[in-house]
């Protein structure tokens, strides 16, 4: 059992679970890393902790200092919790179009929220640029910069990859997940390849992101769209530079939702859509390995990124799903 003498020690060392339905569909073992078990209920707690520790080690973050980030989601939650545990303040910049729930959550955790009008990335008023400027203007503040700060992927090289290797006792054939900042896929990919270069690393991309075409055809080009939060990247972030991607899959929201539905209804796991998309990618990777002659004991791992409790007004809301033209889970259909 995992015992920790401090709360930050609760970040990482998450359980790994064999997923029955996905394994049956793939014809081999599909394992899910339970990142919803982190204190902030998502994979981003790891990046938050490593970014803050890196800033401390560099001497840019001093006692009582402020961490500024532009994010609407899980990174803000992770940063706010880590900051509380270490005596820092958090300022989160987000577009005013974000859901009420997210604003309420970040305020509840003690973060200071700065709302800006929604704007394209090329506009200096975009929330990411605003957060950088705010960090520069605020005495004693650092900018977390999760997209291009490689302390993010280092978290996954040093923790997630090592944990997967240990938990699967050094027998793992493939790993896949989607990319937001790219910290998880690049970090776990680099970390696992350092143990065994033959482990197949696959990017699982949602529609509306540019990375599938980049890795398949060398061209950053997005097609379609997705309602999945936290994933879908249009550029090669610093975290993605040099990521050892062997193959790539493009997964629709409908395929992702299928696994969100099955994992909840059949296996009692309530997850967000990026997890469902990751599982669909893992099934595709598992099938490919089986088709190449690997046996039913081939092992593919993926990331269960966050809890579905964060999406009660969206993914788990019949009206919202209908408005988006997405299938409604039967038990919500009324
Ligand atoms: N899923 C969710 C729900 C997320 O919030 C994130 C973080 N943006 C990801 C997946 C992707 O993680 P990463 O930023 O490491 O690519």
Q: What can you see in these coordinates?
A:
By secondary structure, the chain is α/β, with parallel strands linked by helices. 40% of the residues lie in helices and 15% in strands. The chain has a 6-stranded mixed sheet, sandwiched between helices. Strands 5-4-3-6 form a 4-stranded parallel sheet, with helices on both faces. Strand 7, helix 7 and strand 8 form a beta-alpha-beta unit. Helix 6 packs across helix 7. The longest helix is centred in the C-terminal third of the chain and has 19 residues.
Quick overview of this protein structure:
The chain has helices at 20-26, 44-58, 74-86, 100-108, 127-137, 151-167, 183-195, 211-217, 253-267, 273-291, 318-323, and strands spanning 16-18, 29-34, 66-70, 89-95, 112-116, 141-143, 174-177, 200-206, 247-251, 299-304.
Key features?
Rossmann fold; alpha/beta; 334 residues; six-stranded mixed β-sheet; binds 4'-deoxy-4'-aminopyridoxal-5'-phosphate; 40% helix
CA(first)-CA(last) distance = 41 Å
**Average residue-wise pLDDT:** 96
CATH A-level architecture of the largest domain: 3-Layer(aba) Sandwich
Low-confidence stretches: none
Question: Biggest β-sheet: count, sense, barrel?
Answer: 6 strands, mixed
Order of helices and strands: EHEHEHEHEHEHEHEHEHHEH
Q: What is the CATH top level name of the largest domain?
A: Alpha Beta
State the CATH topology of the largest domain: Rossmann fold
Bound molecules: 4'-deoxy-4'-aminopyridoxal-5'-phosphate
Task: Tally the structural domains.
Answer: 2
Query: Treating each run of at least 4 consecutive H or I residues as one helix, how many helices?
Result: 11
Give, in spatial order, the strands making up the sheet with the most strands. Answer: 1-2-10-7-8-9
Instruction: Give the tally of β-strands.
Output: 10
Strand content: 15-25%
The structure class reads alpha/beta
What percent of residues adopt helix (DSSP H or I)?
Answer: 25-40%
